[in-house]
């Protein structure tokens, strides 16, 4: 991913993914590990 998009885009993409996982965990009350497997 870093090679294709550049370092900062990769950082932002990973941060956005982590934010979605955290939001889903808080919103649905589920364990975030269920979402990180995919």
Summarize the structure.
This is Mobile element protein. The protein is mainly α. It contains three helices and no strands.
Describe the structure in your own words:
Helix content is 79%, strand content 0%. It has helices at 2-5, 7-28, 33-36. It is rod-shaped and about 35 Å long. The chain is built from 3 helices and no strands. It is an all-alpha fold and 38 residues long. It has one domain. The mean pLDDT is 77.
Distance N terminus to C terminus? 17 Å
Instruction: Quote the beta fraction.
Output: under 5%
- Following the backbone from N to C, one meets helices and strands in this order, namely HHH
List low-confidence stretches: none
Total individual domains = 1
Rounded mean pLDDT is 77
Structural class: mainly alpha
Helix % is over 70%
Radius of gyration (CA) equals 12 Å
Number of strands: 0
Count every helix, treating DSSP H or I runs of 4 or more residues as helices.
Answer: 3
Form type: rod-shaped
Largest sheet: none
Features:
mainly alpha, Mobile element protein, plasmid, 79% helix, 38 residues
Topology:
Elements: H1 2-5, H2 7-28, H3 33-36
Protein name: Mobile element protein
Organism: Escherichia coli
Keywords: Plasmid
């Amino acid at each position: 991913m870093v090679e294709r998009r550049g370092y900062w885009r990769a950082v932002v993409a990973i941060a956005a993914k982590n934010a979605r996982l955290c939001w889903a965990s808080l919103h649905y009350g589920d364990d975030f590990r269920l979402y990180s497997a995919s």
